[in-house]
Amino acid sequence: MSSNIESVLVENRVFPPPEAVVKAARISGMAGYEALCREAEQDFEGFWARLARENVVWNKPFSRVLDESNAPFYKWFDDGELNASANCLDKHMGTPTENKAAIVFEADDGKVTTVTFKELLARVSQFANALKAQGIKKGDRVIVYMPMTIEGVIAMQACARIGATHSVVFGGFSAKALNERIIDAGAVAVITANFQMRGGKELPLKSIVDEGIAMGGCECIKSVLVFQRTATPCNMVAGRDKTFDEVLQGQSTTCAPEPVGAEHPLFILYTSGSTGKPKGVQHATGGYLLWANLTMQWTFDVKPSDVFWCTADIGWITGHTYVAYGPLAAGVTQVVFEGIPTYPNAGRFWQMIEKHKVTIFYTAPTAIRSLIKAADSDEKVHPKNWDLSSLRILGSVGEPINPEAWMWYHRHVGGERCPIVDTFWQTETGGHMITPLPGATPLVPGSCTLPLPGIMAAIVDEAGHDVPNGAGGILVVKRPWPSMIRTIWNDPERFKKSYFPEELKGLYLAGDGAVRSADRGYFRITGRIDDVLNVSGHRMGTMEIESALVAKTDLVAEAAVVGRPDDLTGEAICAFVVLKRPRPTGEEAKQIANELRNWVAKEIGPIAKPKDIRFGDNLPKTRSGKIMRRLLRSIAKGEAITQDTSTLENPAILEQLAQTN
Ligand code: WT7
Description:
Elements: H1 4-11, H2 19-24, H3 29-42, H4 44-55, E1 66-67, E2 75-76, E3 81-82, H5 84-88, E4 101-106, E5 112-116, H6 117-133, E6 141-145, H7 150-162, E7 165-168, H8 175-185, E8 189-193, E9 195-198, E10 201-204, H9 206-214, E11 223-227, E12 241-243, H10 244-248, E13 260-261, E14 265-271, E15 279-284, H11 286-298, E16 307-310, H12 317-330, E17 333-337, H13 348-356, E18 360-363, H14 365-377, E19 393-397, H15 403-413, E20 420-423, E21 457-460, E22 472-477, E23 487-488, H16 492-499, E24 508-516, E25 523-528, E26 532-535, E27 538-541, H17 542-550, E28 556-566, E29 570-579, H18 586-603, E30 612-615, H19 629-637, H20 652-659
Parallel strand pairs: 4-17, 6-7, 6-8, 8-11, 11-12, 16-17, 16-18, 18-19, 19-20, 29-30
Antiparallel strand pairs: 1-2, 3-13, 4-5, 9-10, 14-15, 15-23, 21-22, 22-24, 24-25, 26-27, 28-29
Bound molecules: 5'-O-[(S)-butoxy(hydroxy)phosphoryl]adenosine.
5'-O-[(S)-butoxy(hydroxy)phosphoryl]adenosine binds next to helix 12, strand 20, strand 24 and strand 25.
Cofactor: Mg(2+)
Catalytic activity: acetate + ATP + CoA = acetyl-CoA + AMP + diphosphate
GO molecular function: acetate-CoA ligase activity
């Protein structure tokens, strides 16, 4: 994009919060922020107890705040009881919020449907009754494989209402990915739709469910509930599959929410780790709900009059916390969008902001970068063509935002008037961790600034010792926090090893590198330090993609996957492949590369398709047979190899891999 010189200049600029925003904000000015941080430092448990009493409706109040007796398996508000759905819906009944729009849904084709909080409560309750009628009960796991729709949110809320643990699988994942998650979670049901609509196309969901279940090991599934998103019929298995209409028939629209213990698993969400198998990140109910509600108020400073729009899919953690739970708990109107930012053209987001008078807009740097590119090549989709004056706060999530994209977002979307909250967090953290506060924090483009009050984030070296500001290191969190991951479903040992490794003596390891600025102590995330890639804000394990490639046993002998920087997607997936046949070149190489891409799409999902595939007679290995990934990273970037290659068994391979493209 633009030159390095500009980005250096831009990075040093500071944008103080506008006076009017400071005045009206819940956390007002740095003094307000610091007061909360002090409260947390002086009385950690008292701080969280106060917030949990003020921001969560408890059926039974808690008496214990934090139980560290079995660390790192922390428990929060353990003897308290609540229901997550009641905290999102029932809580608002009898208040002015009940008749306010909860969800303004815009379909792929532009059709708008609105439900009020009261109507949503009725629909969630009715669907909850339908789930119960299927024999689904508290503690059961339910897979949700749904398009971005009101019904998707209803499915999640209905599970929460009866105490079932949902596990949402993003609609872009493959049958195989679905199969693995069904088995690992031991799910009793799948909630899905016949099709989903994206970019004017009707894409299958139900047939992928059928295929996933047919792959075997899914005897645990007793029912498949199908939302008919489109008129096109889909295959229905007698006795197992039922349409929403069928199961809702005759069900009451009231359903008492099932109180659960604060530590009851609200959901499992699978995410990629450094090793092959995705991890089922397990979240609890009480602490998660607290943080979903509180960060809406702190980070977005929501007011009753706001129209909030988070563009994330419910298949990701952002769509859990800031679509399915947070906005509802906060009682704010939100926009839910089914489609994609570039259909019917790349002005869709701006058009929707104008149409729905969105006040808080939360999206990913990848989306911004692709819309910049589109606006650069076609004036007609530039945000200046729409009235975006309703906006008051902008947010960014999922990957570092480069200063150029930040400046464009600030200028052309925010009209230089809206604070940008660059929110750093993870599937595992449940909600925001390090982020500016719109009415307090002076902004520096490209920096997620400071941890939220009570979040004891720090940067340490490999032995867990603090490093000074200005020096890079490993991002950790020194104390537990309420919305943290509780365990990896079915694998507590992996939980301990991944997030609380012995060397770090009890510190939570985020998996990211970071550096704090010398002047302000602001955090800047420098990227993952493990074998996890961030492609368009989606997390992908390199090993996961490697396993998928070598699973093509008729063709692939060996594969190594690394990331390389990409202007648009942040990182791009680059695969080095050794075939079981002579190394292909030219047209043949192109054709096999495409075959492999489609294979990976089938194994994992289209988001995991490698952008580059290079074929070699071999891979660079040490004499002990270890693949030297750092060399592959340099080759992927197109860099000259400057590293020491003396331990390499086969140095000639480097040149061959560098040539192929
Ligand atoms: C990883 C977590 C956060 C919800 C969506 C992604 C990267 C996330 C930022 C940010 C720099 C960021 C990190 C993190 N990341 N937000 N604002 N600045 N990096 O959740 O799939 O669990 O991925 O995304 O590398 O570890 P996720």
